[in-house]
Amino acid sequence: MKTIFHNHRIKFLSLIALLIMATCKKDELKYEDKPGIYIDKEKFVGVRDSTSYSFAEKANTLMLDTIYIPVKISGNMSTVDRAVPLKADESLTTAISGTHYQVLETKIKANEIIARVPILIKRTTDLKTKQVRLFLKIETSAEFPLKIINTKTNSTFNGEPSNTYTPGYLIKFSDQLLKPDTWDASGSWFKFFFGVYSAVKYKFVIDVTGRTVWGPRARDGAEAPTSTQMYIYYAKLVSALYEYEKLNGPMIDETGNQVTFPKL
Amino acid sequence: MKKNILSLLYGFALISLLTVGCMKDKGNYDLKIINEIEVGALSTTANIDILLNDTLRITPTVTQNNVTNGKYTYSWYIFSDAFGPKIELSDKKDLKVAINAPLGGYTLMYVVKDINTNITSTVQTHLNIISRFGSGIVVLEEKAQGGDISHIGLDGQIYRNLYTTGNQGNYIPKPIGELVGFYHKRGEQIQKPYNLFISAPERSTIQLDAENYQQAGLFSAMLAIPPAAPVHLSAIQGYWSGNSIFAAVNGKIHFGTQDVAVPLFEGSLIGDYEVAPFIITATSAGRQNTPAITTNFICYDQKNRRFLWFSGFATGQLNTYATDMSSPGAFNPNNVGKTCVYACYSNEYAYYNWLMKDDAGKMYFYQIYPISTQKAAAAYAEIPASAGMNNAAIFAGSTELPHIYYVSGNNIMLYDYKSNTAKLVYTPSAGEQITDLKFSVSRVAEFNTFYRIIRTTGKIYIATYNGTEGKVQEFDVSATGDLGSPVKKYGGFGKITSMFYKEKR
Directed axis angle between helix A227-248 and helix A199-209, to 10°? Predict the structure, then answer.
């Protein structure tokens, strides 16, 4: 036996090497490459499933505005443009297409994976007295046949996604003063400088400061005020409230509570 | 046999490689001593003080061993103590350059390199860029044409006509008012001169560039919410902790932040009040077993004749004191009922002096502690009429001794608030009218003095006017508060209406 091994040592070694190589052969993955598309909620700041918009916070001359919805594909890029199948879910929408809003046709361009869908919202007189809802959802199409239910954030905690997002996106809009979505968010300057929200207080804030655009949490994004500006707004507000109370007594909000500002 | 020989050869080769790997390097290189460059010291002292815009001249000795006509490159540069960027000064052997970098401390570097061998030598020293007008007494004087400013350096040199020189020959309009200043207390700003203002009730307060006394705009530019013009600043003071700053403007207190190059006032403190032109920000010293300060800021409301206090990090409402009388103080801070004529820090930390006058003209001494209960009222005394204080308009309080100096008639009187007595300490020559009285102060509060606020030091300056010439007399204050004779005299001014003491760190 020993003689056989010695005489055929090279052959034995070659055989073992071949066996080892065979075990390393990669099994070819087989799956159906169906493209899909989803609303890319990672692009939103703060609340990621909905937004509130009020023309009341904007200039009186603004009659039309645009909200952009970021979308992203799943699957391979295409060599041709593909229409984004973002539609209103009529069962969950109270805004009237054409009257209150318009979803502009948008395409994922060839060899690209993302796009932004412009949603035109219109300042109609009825928005002075009501808030309408536009629930957007991705539908399947011939170009994007894969239905994507939930998406998960890339960021992880203990190996698990820190967020899971539902597929739809809700836009609530009106021409009334609405509570900013991020008023009570962690680290919000709305809450730190202005305290508990009320519609009466918020209108007072806008009237005294003259500012209608605050950005998320009144501190994020290019439109947000600086901390110095916030301290100045705070000074104006406590002073204006003091003068108001001298003339009129306490300012009472819509819930019957006295409007106050926190002591900083 | 052949197999054994091969094994031996392999083993021998392996041991040889291992052995060679462990060989020690004998290090028998061909080393030569280089021709080192030797540069003499840049200064005979550890620090060079240079006035801003003055020319710094340094001629260092440069020698190189065994080299007589070497060729070198030179580099002079500075970098600030505040980790500012490198500032190139010169590439010549000798330094002769006007220094116009920002005021402050720097490291001055000098690098000499031999072009042929790249042998380099570097020496350094510390450089302070200081302002010509960083220290001394600023004198606001009235002349026939209007107001002007002179500066008396601490070395006795007098710089005259500075306002008119710096402002195209224009004078300060009459009435010229008084000087009000703000001392930065920390950060890079502490190296800078002061925020200095000319304040008169009839017009908006203007700011001066404290380096050259040019007009630097209106004080109201520092107010985010300025009141209607004229915007009159009557007092300004920072708080020792945090970055709060307070200013008395048109009878209201404006609150702001000072940790920026230009203080910014966010808004006025709210409440029904008209503030006396004195600001006391509470002092502390890290002393043990003392009650926590709860009133960072104390002022007096002339309208309702009561003390008010504030504590906070943003604008808010001025507060009255607690009304619980179960543990009363020396008086009720909510009901003083008199008019404030002067306020100052005392010789004890956390006790603040206020002089009041009642409707009959009688004078009173009050002392406040920085807490919000009735116990804040620390001391009270009715000042004897013999003190002659009731018509005094010029005061200067000491923080070294329990004394307040004031001008009664044309005499300098000393009021000792511990004994509630007054005495005459100086009478000027016949014909000389006293027009102002100021202590020297330390710009930087030192912890070991138990103060963290501007405090007075041992000199007092008295301005007089004889109808044609204004003078400043400098006195050393004795341990008893007596002034004796002036140790220095400066003359040739117009009528001095106000002085401001400056001292760089």
Answer: 110
Put simply, the answer to whether A264 touches B316 (Cβ < 8 Å) is yes
HSE-CB at A226 with a 13 A cutoff on CA atoms is 3
With a cut of 80, say whether residue B262 has pLDDT above it: no
Tell me whether residues A236 and B225 touch, CB distance under 8 A: yes
| Domains along the sequence of chain A with CATH | 36-174 (2.60.40.2030), 179-264 (no CATH)
DSSP-assigned beta bridge partners for residue A83: A107
List the beta bridge partners of residue B501: B137
Classified by CATH at the fold level, domain B37-130 comes out as Immunoglobulin-like (2.60.40)
pLDDT digits (tens, 9 = 90+) for B46-102: 889 898 889 999 999 999 988 888 899 999 999 988 777 899 999 999 999 999 888
B92 Cβ neighbours under 8 A, 6+ residues apart: B74, B76
In angstroms, the CA B150 to CA B136 distance is: 10
A241 φ, ψ (degrees, to nearest 5) = -65, -40
State the average pLDDT for chain A. Answer: 85
Phi, psi of B94 (to 5 degrees): -100, 145
Q: Is the pLDDT of residue A5 over 70?
A: no
Give the C-alpha separation, B474 to B459, whole Å. 7
Asked whether the beta carbons of residue A239 and residue B225 sit closer than 8 angstroms, the reply is yes
Alpha-carbon Rg for chain A in angstroms: 29
Q: Is B199 helix (H, G, I), strand (E, B) or coil?
A: strand
Q: For A264, which of B224, B271, B314 is closest by C-beta distance? A: B314
Question: Which of B178, B207, B134 lies closest to B444 in space, CA to CA?
Answer: B134
> What ipTM does the predicted assembly reach?
0.75
Q: Which tens digit of pLDDT belongs to each residue from A155-165?
A: 666 666 667 77
Give how far B14 is from chain A: nearest CA, Å.
26
Q: Are the CB atoms for B38 and B62 separated by under 8 Å?
A: yes
For residue B161, the tally of other CB atoms under 10 A from its CB is 15
User: What residues of chain A lie within 8 A of the CB of B270, using their CB?
Assistant: 238-239, 242
* Distance from C-alpha of B113 to C-alpha of B485, rounded to nearest angstrom: 59
Cα separation of the two ends of chain A = 92
Tokens of B151: 């500066």
Q: Which are the contacts of B220, defined by CB distance < 8 A and separation ≥ 6?
A: B204, B205, B226, B229, B231
Q: Check: CB of residue B260 under 8 Å from CB of residue B308.
A: no
Give me the phi and psi of A248, to 5 degrees please.
Answer: -120, -5
Query: Where do we find the tokens 């509630």?
Result: B420
